Amino acid sequence: MSNSLWSDAWARLQKNKLAVFGAIFLTLEILLCVLTPWIAPYGFETQNLELTLARPSFAHWFGTDNLGRDLFTRILYGGRISMAVGIIASLISVVVGVIYGAISGYVGGKTDTILMRIVDILYALPFIFMVIILMVYFGRNILLLFVALGLTQWLTMARITRGQVISLKQKEFVDAARSVGVKTRYIILKHLIPNTLGPVIVYLTLTIPSVILEEAFLSFLGLGVQAPMASWGTLISSGVEVMEIAPWILLFPALMLSLTLFSLNFLGDGLRDALDPKGARD
Amino acid sequence: MAILEIKNLKAHFHTRRGVVKAVNGISYSIEPGQTLGIVGESGSGKSVSQLSYLKLLPSPPLKIPEGEVLFHGENILAMPEERLRTIRGNKISMIFQEPMTSLNPYLTIGSQLIEPLIIHLKKSKRDAWKEACAALSRVGIAEPEKAMKSYPHEFSGGMRQRVMIAMALTTRPEILIADEPTTALDVTVQAQILDLLREIQKETQMAIILITHDLGVIAGLADKMVVMYAGRIFEEGPVEKIFHQSEHPYTRALLRSTPRVDVLQDKIPVIGGSIPDLSQVGQGCPFYERCEFRTDICQSTFPTSRKIAHNHETFCHVEKFQ
Amino acid sequence: MSATPSLSVRSLKVHYKLRSGFFNFKATATLKAVDDVSFDLYPGEVLGLVGESGCGKSSLGRALLRLQEPTSGNIQLGGLDFLSLHGEALRNVRPQIQMIFQDPYASLDPRMTIEATLREPLEAHGLWSGIDSQKNLEQLLDRVGIGKKALAKYPHEFSGGQRQRIAIARALVLRPKVIIADEPVSSLDVSVQAQILNLLKEIQKELHLSIVFISHNLAVVKYIADRIAVMYLGKIVELAPKDHLYSQPQHPYTQALISAVPIPDPRIEKFRKRIELRGEIPSPINPPKGCAFHTRCPIAQESCKQHAPELKNYRNSSQQFSCFEVK
What we know:
The complex is a heterotrimer of chains A (282), B (322) and C (327).
Chain A: H1 5-15, H2 17-39, H3 71-107, H4 109-124, H5 127-138, H6 142-169, H7 172-180, H8 184-221, H9 232-241, H10 248-275
Chain B: E1 4-15, E2 18-30, E3 35-39, H1 46-53, E4 62-71, E5 74-75, H2 81-87, E6 92-95, H3 99-102, H4 109-120, H5 125-138, H6 144-148, H7 157-169, E7 175-179, H8 187-204, E8 207-212, H9 215-221, E9 224-229, E10 232-238, H10 239-244, H11 249-256, H12 296-300, E11 306-309, E12 312-314
Parallel strand pairs in B: 3-8, 3-9, 6-7, 7-8
Antiparallel strand pairs in B: 1-2, 1-4, 4-5, 9-10, 10-12, 11-12
Helix pairs in contact in B: 4-5, 5-7, 7-8
Chain C: E1 7-20, E2 26-41, E3 46-50, H1 57-64, E4 72-77, E5 80-81, H2 87-93, E6 97-100, H3 114-124, H4 131-143, H5 160-172, E7 178-182, H6 190-207, E8 210-215, H7 218-224, E9 227-232, E10 235-241, H8 242-247, H9 252-260, H10 266-269, H11 302-306, E11 312-313, E12 320-321
Parallel strand pairs in C: 3-8, 3-9, 6-7, 7-8
Antiparallel strand pairs in C: 1-2, 1-4, 4-5, 9-10, 10-12, 11-12
Helix pairs in contact in C: 5-6
């Protein structure tokens, strides 16, 4: 009957009600988004020009927009885009950041100094402006959006990973592995990375909301996804235009976005507390 | 006439895993000019026993369900916070193991030293400054004026501990509680600090409560001592008696299993097992599992005090150790 | 001692260059952690290495395992020039010299089971062979006083003393000839220290191991070591068999050190006259010129500030120390 740090963390996570709520909400949401093509009541482009800006009703749960498109359907499809951007961009930031940070931290010395100075310099650049410039210059390619947003987040991930690796490098169990003759690549794979996963996972759950928000912001400015595709950002943007006559068009996408962000934050906080090995010994 | 009398003190931590009985009913007293040594290993409750009644531990999770701590006859546990504050850091001072964490790294030594003088003794800043310099001199710091303007990180461990002692002494406390004051120091520096404490005590007739796991330190400094284990007191008495005529299996085993520089030991007898989980202790003797003299009653009931001599008592059911 | 040493160290130096500046390129000072150390370790012998902070004993221990590469010097391990080996050749020799670390809470990877931790050395050298290896591990754990049920458990489920036993088992898995024990009992309670010390003593005798036992605790070293080297600011100032060191210490630092250790007996301790050393231990960054100890030495002379003494034998005995003033 083993009692690993993971199962211990899982048990503690389950006790955190907010985190559990967040996890359940996100799971349902992801499920809905994945199953959207089958469960959406209407096509996302289906227009009904006789029923524009309609209030929520039985036929249209969230009402319709200015072209008579069902808002609920649009939110579902928008969710697919927003969530995809969030997850993929964050994963890109994790992969780039973790590898960069791990190498910098483990190799140390001049390499570490140079790599980290580069990070410091990049930190000083206002990234959102860089992304905007890229989008304007290269056009609004959704793949470019993913990559660009991912690259805005990797810097902090690199710093976190490097910090973890440096403190782990000095831990005696790493010395023990070296003294026993374990090859460097196995030390990184079997000792360093599993011990960095904790903070990385936590930061990941906090990066996703950041990216979704950035995408929403870009779309709001008109630089994100193109019509007729929708993301929560574009929906919020159109909602603002008709805010006074049809407030629900702004309300529902904003609500979805907020709830998703809250859930991710609750889950992230919960994971951080649960995975902290010091908290395990009360 | 005892300055401090602790009667049946209990201090429990209420945690997710259960109630940790860190201090489980201890009693002792200390007279002016006396050095009381509290010896114990980790989990014995030696530090918690002092930190608890001075309200230096977060509560919750700490609760003091029972006991009295009489300072000049007045129960500290029943005192309101403002009254306690006039005693703590003033009449009862404390120094800790890690001087780096006890001193504020952002303030100069000087500003930290004059603080208790201004707050407790209501001195003016100038007078406090002069007295603080004198205190630094007293503890062996050359160039006290310069030291007052320095920051903690500019000093070595030994010097910082001297500063801590100076700080604790400025208010001329009646009791100095020293919690593992030399454990983090090199042995040659430890010798200097212990000698310093001895000199100061001779001068001021201050009482010292010395908490440590090091039997050698106790032997050199303490007049009377208390042996603690898992929240209980096992033996209490004059240092000379406890070291040479102990009547408790734990004390005897501890003394025998301590390596010494002056004696060639071929094989040190060992105490098997390990210290029990403090959230699982029952009503019996916590040393039961590891004791070679244990009997059935030891498991069910913690022994009451048995007087060996007028000031030497032990807490053990067993009377003969042959 | 006529046998061939298991480990031979000559003129070992571990110097760190301290850097500053925006890109950390400018070298400002040198930290001489280990400054020209030589000694031999014989088969079946326990050599104690004692000293206070800054003496370099831990750096020396790590350098012996090349966890920290020495700046210069020579190490002969089992007849091989240890420092000249790299890569695969180095890894193949590592099984001969293993380490027991100080902190039982940090020396075991918290995310690996005990079995995984003990298998790792064998797998790294291609020595794991299923059931037989498993049985050997169980026997090894048994020998150090831990039941085989421990294999499936994680480090945090054990106490400090138990973890240290597991650390000892790990050090023995590859059947080394030399073990470097870096303060192996310093983090343990007194009642547990004796258990681990006795275990080490037994195993050392059984397996005829050579051990370098590093500690700041002179009493512990007296119990377990055969010969003892006293270090100060990166140098060995005295090297003697146990009984000689404690009964007739020659170097003033050794004398002061021994006199400073508290003795658990009030009849003795309350009446001792200590040898007081002036001042504090200097920093190993740019240590004092001449004899490194002269700033605190009770018998220092002018010449001690100019020249650094060498280790010399005392009256034809096997006791060595480095001081101009003692005859």
